[in-house]
Amino acid sequence: MKRLLLFIPVFLIGFAAKSQIALQGNDTIFTNGPASEFEIVAYSNIVNNSANSANLRWVKLQTAMPTGWLSTVCDINACYPDNTDSADFTLGARATGNIDGHFYPNNVIGNGTLRVRVYEVGNPSNQVIVTFIGSTNAASVAALVKPSLKLYPVPAVDYINVELNYQAENGQIEIFNMIGKKMAEFPLSGNKSRIPVGQLPKGQYLMRIESSKGLTTKSFIKQ
Question: Are the C-beta atoms of 159 and 194 separated by less than 8 Å?
């Protein structure tokens, strides 16, 4: 009887400690642009709401592209080749990481669908499914502008330059470490900013920019 009584609390603690992942935003993400553009990107974020890191895996469930299109998935580690159907990554406790759908239209007008399942390795019921839908038209590049974020130099040492392809109004820059702790925040106005990062410990970070244009994230390394 004593063994049973001791086992029950341990089991409950272990159960409570399981990770829970969720999408930050909608489960269907739309993006569009001119067919002449090299790529169009649909941005999405995965949140680990637990106090423990989670070993996650994404798997392509559906890829439906017009003839001539390519597509790929990007996570916090990398952007993968078109023929990569699955990859693993780790998301820290209380951390947010990106899962993005990239479409390469190759001057072809049409619509593409990329459906991805993200789940916890060893606990597949803990999952989210996100659908990326990309569409192109014959408009000029100047007519349609998709939000994008460029960071340099990477790895960063004392500072990092932030460059957007749009004018941010009342923007906010937040920097998180890989366990989800906010390490710094700065106001953002315009499309360029130079952010001091010399005070940050060495490691990988996630930059989150929110403005009137929406939410954009990108990871970088601090040396």
Answer: yes
List Cα–Cα distances, 71 to 134, 155, 171, in angstroms.
10, 27, 30
Q: Is the pLDDT of residue 18 over 70?
A: no
Q: Which residues contact 176 (CB under 8 A, 6 or more apart)?
A: 95, 96, 182, 183, 205, 206, 208
Average pLDDT of span 102-125: 93
Selection from 179, 174, 180 nearest residue 193 by Cα: 174
- The second-level CATH assignment, the architecture, of 149-222 is Sandwich (2.60)
Class of 20-143 in CATH: mainly beta
Q: Which residues in 177-192 are b (16+ Cβ under 10 Å) and which e?
A: bbebeebeeeebeeee
Amino acid letter, residue 136: T
